[in-house]
Amino acid sequence: MKDEESGNRLGSYLRARRELVSPAQAGLPPGGNRRVPGLRREEVALLAGISPDYYLRLERGRDKNPSPQVLESLARVLQLDDIERTYLLGLAAARPRAPRRRRPEHVPPRVHELLAHLQIPAFVEGRAFDVLASNPMAIALSPRLRPGLNRLRSLFLDPEEQAFHQDWTKAAADFVAALRTTIGDDTDNPRFVELVGELALSSQRFRTLWARHDVRSLDGGTITVNHPVVGELRLHRDKLPIDDVILVVYYPDKDSDSDEKLRLLAALSHTESPGAAHDGPAGDPRPKTP
Questions:
Q1: What is the C-alpha separation between 210 and 13, in angstroms, rounded?
Q2: Phi-psi category of 232—alpha, beta or left, where left has phi over 0 and alpha has psi -120 to 50?
Q3: Which residue among 66, 127, 142, 211 is least enclosed by CB atoms within 10 Å?
Q4: Per residue in 201-236, pLDDT tens?
């Protein structure tokens, strides 16, 4: 996480976002001979009503205390949505903090009981998308949902997981943006540093998406996946916070084609061992190589 290590997260975010806004989107003539993607620094400053010198200081980290009014103007010029705007305001408000005491992520016993009773795919994930526990239906849906694996690592490095998602391009962008949102100012967390470092070295697509500085919430939604046994499934996703972990459930519309296919998958999963819903390695959330 080179930009985070530099201590200039605000400037890195401003630079990444202005490169994604075209002159036409900002209401400016395209002009010729543009040497930078997106808007120039002076164009952002003009549209935000601040001096080019002041904006340059913000991007280079020489001024880390812009007023809320300035940030609101920049959010408008950079066409940020509500989540991105909140993220921008949070970057400016960040202050040096004492090192955090990090507890190992742990699945409460009652959640294991819940997983055992649910008849739909359900699993527990940590902040870095490590799978901590899962039920047989989740593993029947995707073997990459076994405890000890990492969902981002599977998404970018496992061809079977890429084929599983009907719209892998969107899924990849959403997961990376959600990871950056989750990290927030916890940039020195060893698990985040390890995961981002591994994926940045192994995947060009991850490097490209990470450099965009997208932020997004990945809570409720609907996905379509290609299951190798039962075919196409359209499933809703909900994420429910429980203590320090997240319970994720997938379910179809009642009496739909996907509902029928999921019932078939449930019948097939009964042949699997019932002991699938368990923690990953204690104190070691790192994914195992598939």
A1: 11
A2: beta
A3: 211
A4: 999 999 999 999 999 887 888 999 999 999 999 999
